[in-house]
Amino acid sequence: MSKIKFKDILKEEYIELMQLDKGLKSIKKAWEDWKKGPATEYEDVPPAYKELEKYIAKWIKKNLR
Q: Does residue 59 lie in a domain region?
């Protein structure tokens, strides 16, 4: 079992204080709805996942400075 460092706990506190879970759950629901959708093919999922990652990272870099 590895030790938890104080700096790791502190970093998690920043995120907890931002109360992001509601927004993240909304993204998760949209993803799950899309995956279950009638037009979604199994082979579409991996490239769509990578596209979603890039989209979110780009959005964060553009909007959270």
A: yes
